[in-house]
Amino acid sequence: MRTNQPGQIAHLKPASPKWKWLLTVFAAIAAISTFAADAPPKTRNVFLITTDGLRWQEVFTGAEEILLTKENGGVKDLDGLKKDFWRPTPEERRKAPMPFLWSEVASKGQIYGNQTKGSIARIVNTRRFSYPGYSEFLTGIADPRIDSNNKIPNPNTNVFEWLNQQPGFQGKVAAVVNWDVIPWILNTERSRLPIWTGYPLPPNAPVLIKFSPELEQLVADTTPIWSSVIMDSFTARAAMDYVRQEQPRAFYLAFGETDEWAHDGRYDCYLRAAHNVDRFIQRLWETTQSLPAYRDQTTFIITTDHGRGSGPQDWRHHNDKIGGAENIWVAVIGPDTPPLGERVKCALVTQSQVAATVAAVLGEDFHAAFPQAGAPIKEVRVTGK
After folding, report:
1. Dihedral Cα 366, 369, 371, 376, nearest 10 deg
2. Is the dihedral of CA 134, 137, 138, 143 positive or negative?
């Protein structure tokens, strides 16, 4: 029976027990629907996790055969690398370096960016390198003024800075990262966000995160491979310690080896770094699910800052002249995210939507506060504001 037609309800007899029963049922359904629409999200905590410069190609199709050589991929032990990561099909190959992403995150959450299946995830900024990318996913804005990786304070408000000002989040927001420029991208002098990088912070940044002398000494005693990025293993250990001790509600974790090894032309190390990131994320997820403050109340959003080129040489590079470096990927798992799995033939997802999505899974509206930022990814949450 359609109840939206004029005058139809007027024909019902209120005295009839049958109609009274039906009206009661309709009222109950309406009340349940309203409650569901207004119900707060189950997510109370959000983790944004990024791994610098990891291509969508490896995420969705696994190791690329043309790069499994000494000439194109700088591979030292070809037999060992193929044993670990080469499989007959793309579906098998992608699970080899990132088994947790595909067994848990993609199966129980959502993942965007497989261009072979009509799912496009793309940056909005035109630079196609790190600072503009980090700024875009942290602030929701592709700012043309950001045109270098120099240590310049970001003029835009990032989502973690904004969350730290919201009721219930003050003092429960932090970042553990391993690229020495990120404190400037987060503008820690202004935002006052506690952050650890393993490197000196901006002059007036708050010094609120300290770890055991043993960890700090291990970082100091390890011969660096790169001048501005520490090893992902140190970052993973620091993040795990901080989460267990402080239990932040909004947490940003950044890994960087995938980009560095790619620039060095070491496809073997690049794949192994991606595999390590997958293991670190698994450990962190299992840790959160073991703690009452996080269990069934935590959403992970996992992505990257830019893509890379294709082919024997361009896979190493990314900039505004490298085709394909604008393509990225985004994965989400959490109690409010429908398990839609690997998305196919879906609407375009942009890097500028990540910041608002971080807030949206908590029931907060970053996009309303900063309308110039991208809107949240609609399908990622089913409840909240």
Report:
1. 10
2. positive
Q: How far is CA 367 from CA 102, 157, 264, 382, in A?
A: 30, 12, 38, 17
> If you search the block for the tokens 């820690």, which residue do you land on?
188
R_g of the chain, CA atoms, integer Å: 23
Are 252 and 208 in contact by the 8 Å Cβ rule? The answer is no
The proportion of the chain whose per-residue pLDDT surpasses 70, expressed as a percent, equals: 89
On whether the CB atoms of residues 281 and 106 are closer than 8 A, the answer is: no
For 260-270, what is each residue's pLDDT tens digit? 999 999 999 99
* CA distances from residue 85 to 41, 93, 149, 210 in whole angstroms, order as listed: 38, 6, 33, 37
Furthest CA-CA distance within the chain: 86
Residue 331, classed as helix, strand or coil, is: strand
Band of pLDDT at residue 38, cut at 50, 70 and 90: low
Q: Which among 23, 17, 16 is positioned nearest to 1, based on CA atoms? A: 23
Give 196-230 pLDDT, tens digit per residue: 999 999 999 987 788 989 999 999 999 999 999 99
Whole-angstrom distance, CA of residue 189 vs CA of residue 187: 5
Q: How does DSSP classify residue 40? A: P
The residue to which tokens 């912070």 are assigned: 201
Name residues whose C-beta falls within 8 Å of residue 30's C-beta, 6 or more positions apart in sequence: none
Residues near 224 by Cβ (< 8 Å), separated by ≥ 6? 230
| DSSP symbol at 109 | S
Contact 377, 353 (CB under 8 A): yes
Q: 213: part of which helix (H) or strand (E)?
A: helix 213-221
